[in-house]
Design a protein that fits this description.
The chain has 163 residues and is mainly β. The chain contains no helices and eleven strands. The protein has two domains: 50 residues, no CATH class; 96 residues, Immunoglobulin-like (Sandwich). A four-stranded mixed sheet has the order 7-4-10-11, with no helix packed on it.
Length: 163
Amino acid sequence: MGGGFGHIQKGHGVSFADLDNDGDQDIYAVLGGAYEGDNYTNVCFENPTFENNWVILNLEGVQSNRSAIGTKLKLDLDNGRTIFYSINTGGSFGANSLQGEIGLGQSELIQTLTIIWPSSDTQIFNSVGVNKKYKLAEGQNKLIEEPYEKVQLLSKKLIHHKK
């Protein structure tokens, strides 16, 4: 399902991240042209709250690179679904959060979370709760739950660009 937003200005970079700490990814877009005078105000699209579950994984490499870039995740969910996810920056004309911000649909439990670090070390965690943020350093034997409180980005009013 789409986010219900759009923009007719040309863009030169887009980033996806959970900017307001509500579990879904919001979008920040750099707009305008490559020439002076062909610029435009950048935009931030706050994704409306949704009813699906999620998990945020803040990973830190120890033997691997500190940002955990290249780490592979496998999430086996309680409904039989499996999600594969890679930690990466996301591309050239924009960048994404280095946290694993993963939508889980209606699943209420991650039965098994498998983490394969760039060092080839593998860690497995069972019965991981949803709608939470966890921190894990490579080699640590426990996921540490971190506070994750929603923040208000701006006004909930629809804001239009003015000339």
